[in-house]
């Protein structure tokens, strides 16, 4: 399994829902299943609370608050 780390600064806020989102191209992560983990204060990772919208060319991850995350694919 591979992963990509993203900083909370990569998220943008959706004006309508007030959720924070990040778009990732399928060229970067492929077409398989992904999971998202949130970085904790002690530099470890734990399962994040997120929603995924899977489009043809990209995956959108939506969270209630921005966080440093690891996307496993």
UniProtKB/TrEMBL annotation:
Domain of life per record: Bacteria
UniProt-recorded name of the protein: Uncharacterized protein
Record organism: Chryseobacterium taichungense
């Amino acid at each position: 399994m591979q992963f990509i780390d993203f900083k909370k600064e990569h998220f943008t806020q959706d004006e309508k829902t007030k959720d924070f989102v990040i778009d990732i191209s399928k060229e970067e992560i492929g077409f398989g299943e992904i999971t998202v983990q949130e970085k904790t204060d002690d530099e470890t990772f734990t399962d994040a609370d997120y929603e995924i919208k899977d489009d043809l060319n990209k995956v959108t991850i939506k969270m209630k608050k921005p966080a440093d995350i690891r996307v496993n694919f």
